[in-house]
Write a structure and sequence with these properties.
five-stranded mixed beta sheet, globular, about 325 residues, alpha/beta, binds fe (ii) ion
Length: about 325
C-alpha cells in the first residue's frame, strides 16, 4: 500500500494524546502529484458522549477494544463529534472531568485521530456559568485546546484520497447553536475542491447531517427538519460538490444508522457509540457501534459494527 499522507503517524501522536492533521497548506495541487488510490481501512467513530454516569467510559473502552481487534486494522479514525456528554451548558470542573475522560480513552485507541466538532463539545456557550464569546476557551476554543485540533475545519490526504473535516456547528452566546457550513468555510471549500480536481476521490466528515431521511421516520414524511437537526445550507453544499468525485459524507448527530445516495455521493450516518445516550439502542433499533470503512482503488465499502454494549441503569 502506498501512502500519500504528508505527515507521519509519529507527528500525530504526542504525549499519549493524538492530534489532528496540520492545515491545508501541506497539500499539493491535483494532477501529477496525486497518488494513485490504494487499499486501506479506517473507522468512523461518532457520538461517544463520554461521562462518568451509566458506565459510559467503560462502554467507550469496550468499543475501542473492538476497534483494535478489527481484522481490517484501520490506519486512522475519523471522530464525528459529541465526544463528551455536553460541556455547552456546564461549569469548568465538569468540563475538565469529561475532556480528561475522553483524552484517556482516546490515547488507548492508539490511532491518528481526525476530528470534527459536535454541538455537545462546545464549551460554556450558555448555562449557569457561561464564558464570554471573546474568551479563547469559548465554544470551540476549549474543544481545540483539549483535542489538539489546529483548525476548526481542515483536510488531509491518505492513499490517494482527500479527506475534509467540516465544522458544521454554528454557536453564539446565550446557548444558541445551529447547523451550518459557514460562508468563510464554503469559500475555503470551493478553493480546495478546485485544487483537488474532478478525479481524486474525496470523503467528508461532518457532525450535523447534510443529507438525511431522519425526519421522515421520526417526525412524519411531510415534516421539515430544523437547523438543530440538519445543516441549513446543505443544498448549497450539495451543489458545490456535484462536479467532483465525492464518494461519501460521514455524518453523526442523530445517532441513527442510515445511508442515502445522491448524485454519486453516499451520505452515511454512522450510528453512535452511545446509542440512545447510553440508555439503549437509538430509537430502540440502532445499536451502540461504529463504522468500518475500506477504500480499494476508487471504490468504498462500509459496515456498521455493534460492539455488544448492554445499557445500564444508574445503579448497575
Ligand atoms: Fe450526539
Amino acid at each position: 500500500m502506498k501512502k500519500s499522507c504528508f505527515i507521519t503517524r509519529r507527528d500525530l501522536i504526542r504525549g499519549g494524546v493524538t492530534l489532528a492533521a496540520a492545515g491545508a497548506t501541506l497539500l499539493p495541487e491535483s494532477g501529477a502529484d496525486a497518488a494513485k488510490p490504494g487499499k486501506f481501512s479506517f473507522v468512523h467513530i461518532t457520538d461517544t458522549h463520554i461521562q462518568p454516569e451509566l458506565g459510559a467510559a467503560e462502554g467507550v473502552k469496550k468499543a475501542f477494544e473492538a476497534i483494535r481487534a478489527l481484522k481490517e486494522k484501520p490506519a486512522f479514525a475519523l471522530i464525528g463529534g459529541d465526544i463528551v456528554m455536553d460541556v455547552a451548558l456546564v461549569d469548568r470542573p465538569r468540563t475538565d472531568l469529561l475532556y480528561d475522560l475522553w483524552n484517556k480513552s482516546a490515547a488507548e485507541l492508539s490511532l491518528p485521530l481526525y476530528y470534527t466538532v459536535g454541538n455537545h463539545d462546545v464549551y460554556a456557550i450558555g448555562g449557569k456559568t457561561p464564558v464570554a464569546a471573546d474568551d479563547p476557551e469559548f465554544g470551540k476554543g476549549m474543544w481545540r485546546k483539549r483535542t489538539g485540533v489546529k483548525n476548526r475545519y481542515d483536510t488531509f490526504d491518505f492513499g490517494g484520497w482527500r479527506f475534509v473535516m467540516l465544522d458544521s456547528v454554528g454557536v453564539a452566546e446565550g446557548g444558541k447553536w445551529w447547523g451550518e457550513i459557514d460562508a468563510e468555510q464554503m469559500r475555503w471549500l470551493d478553493d480546495l475542491l478546485r485544487k483537488t480536481g474532478k478525479q481524486r476521490p474525496v470523503i467528508f466528515l461532518t457532525h450535523i447531517p447534510i443529507l438525511t431521511l431522519f425526519g421522515l421516520y421520526t417526525e412524519g414524511t411531510t415534516q421539515a427538519l430544523t437547523e438543530q437537526t440538519i445543516v441549513k445550507n446543505g443544498k448549497e453544499f450539495a451543489e458545490m460538490i456535484r462536479p467532483y468525485n465525492v464518494k461519501a459524507v460521514f455524518q453523526g448527530h442523530t445517532h441513527v444508522v442510515e445511508a442515502c445516495d445522491y448524485l454519486g455521493t453516499r451520505y452515511i450516518t454512522g450510528g453512535a457509540v452511545c446509542g440512545e445516550w447510553w440508555k439503549g439502542p437509538r430509537l430502540g433499533v440502532h445499536p451502540e457501534g461504529f463504522t468500518v470503512v475500506t477504500a480499494d482503488g476508487d471504490a468504498l465499502s462500509h459496515r456498521y459494527v455493534p460492539y455488544g454494549w448492554k445499557a445500564r441503569t444508574e445503579k448497575s
